[in-house]
Amino acid sequence: MGDHSLVYKLNSERRRQIAGNKFKTEEAEVVVVGSCNTDLISYAPRLPKPGETIHGTKFSIGFGGKGANQCVMAARLEAKTAMVSKVGDDAFGNETIKNFKENGVITEFVSISKGASTGVAPIAVNEQGQNAIIIVPGANMLITPTEVEDALSKLPSVKVLLCQLEINMDATLAALKYGKSKGILTILNPAPAVEKLDPEYYKNCDIFCPNETETEILTGLPVTNIDEAKTAAIKLIELGCTKVIITMGGNGAVLITAENTNPVHITTQKVTPVDTTGAGDAFVGSLAYFLAYHSSLPIPEMIKRACHIATISVGNQGTQKSFPWKGDLPEELLK
Fold it and tell me: What is the model's pLDDT at position 270?
């Protein structure tokens, strides 16, 4: 379905067009309750060992946070998207809000706190494109369940609600419960993973979407190949999930549902990655788009298409800046 080596460069004119494509807040159909971080990315031949100092080859600053990434990916596919989050009263926070607007995201519910800085995420990336990340959450931890519920009450058209575990977890659970109570399709990307996660998180999401590492932490089972992922997926259903999608990087994803406990492996194209940072978020944001706008597609087909978009993203450096726009993608991918 197209060339994975494409580099996406959004010119200033296109940014103005996207920023000018305003829709009313109450028209938002995909909402993300999650984190906003500023990524501080260092590239090096390899990742340092404990106590070791090594020379890097490049440094960049980008926009991140799993919530923000998933939101921007959905918005770049032209989903009507809103973000519910909290940033600090600082330059990183101001630039984060500006970036959302340039990507066509509703920012009415991105609040500014004087109590903490905007979240940051120092990231190290090696020559193979693998990464190691430290998250300093800052203002992300200050958003409250009341603030989340108030924001969601003002978004009557939402079809899909995305959450992660990078913000105040009480606020995340409140969002999932609110979505469930209103018949909104809820997705939980349980990152970073938490051992012995409260069963309420499993019960209040329609789709539970961890990667291999997160699945290992949540289930206590090894997930180093497809067969192990299938076994772990069954365990997640036993823990209370309705539908589970385990993302496996270049090996695609494993799907299982409570109705059909025979796990299915969805493959994707193999590529040599430049930078895998944000690939999982590209997948989740794309999946939200397909669920909101192409709900008649079978779930395995949605997963296949979301994997395709995530695969494109790993061909470029950076997080959000590696995400393709709708106009960059083959028409048949988004039908």
Answer: 85
